[in-house]
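Hi L., both proteins are below.
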Amino acid sequence: MKIQELAEKMGLTIHTIRFYEKQGLLDDRHVRRESNNYRNYGDEAVERLKLIKKFQSIGCSLAELKEVLQDHDTNAQTNQQIIEWILSKKGEIERKKEEYDHMLNTLNWMLEYRRLLISDPEQAEKMFRKWHEGSAH
């Protein structure tokens, strides 16, 4: 299939697919050049892009993606090493979740405070003092 068809099928842009090729994530197993120099993508490209999207969905950087795909292609990792990588990635995501939870709590506090300034300024002042006393420690 041509690149436009592949892009539409995978929900990607042509630019993204070409970027993946330049980065070595798609190679001659996934794309072949026809005699007119047009790229022709097979089912291998579809499967590879599905794999890329799966790893991106768990927050893999481009560098991690390259490493993971290389390990996948060469079967370089033992099952135990893969388990350790998964646990490490899970820990990283849990830390990020804690950071986001903290940010959301702060934003919720700010929103409640600003709404109270409109509806009940006295209560807003109490809320502010309580927060200020708690953060002074």
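That was the first. Here is the second:
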Amino acid sequence: MTKGHTRVGVRVAIVDPLPVFRHGAVAALTAAGHVVQTPTDVVGWATASSEGIVVLTVLAENDWIGLTTLRAAQPQVKLVILLEDTAVAASVRAVKSGAVSVLPRRATPEALCRCIDAVVDGIAMLPTDVVTTLAAEAREHGTVVPVSLAKIGWLRALASGTTVSQLAVHAGYSERAMYRLLRDLYQDLGVGNRVEALILAHGRGWLR
């Protein structure tokens, strides 16, 4: 945190099967100024407001299904995925399922706080090997749909930390319409979410 700057807290949901883990995460993030809850119905929590971050531990296949359900119910919510399996394939799967950041479950409370702060600032936190793998996949799949300069501008704005709400105001759309237009853009690019789109855009030199 920058000296003299007070970070505005955000709504954060912690979803993990271990009470001790949840307690530690809640204590750390609450101390950092965030409003933290441990909802049993995370889909309901997420759909109650478009703003917020869900920290979700994925341990088994049922958790992946829950992640897909959550993403489908509320695409605007930001997802930080904690993985016991730190293999690149699992992290790549998390990003393709909608995660904006991925951390090992054994990460310290301080690392989790830094990750949440980064997400608030519009920055994804991913292992280097994951970024490399996603970039390689992006290079293998060229888009067949022309991308306008305006849409490349949207990607540049998102990469610089502009929120979707701010982008919508600048582009002259409602926030809901902006999310829909961005989803269409990601589909045109052959990617599943913002992180993948920005990796692809970086690889093509659009963010310079």
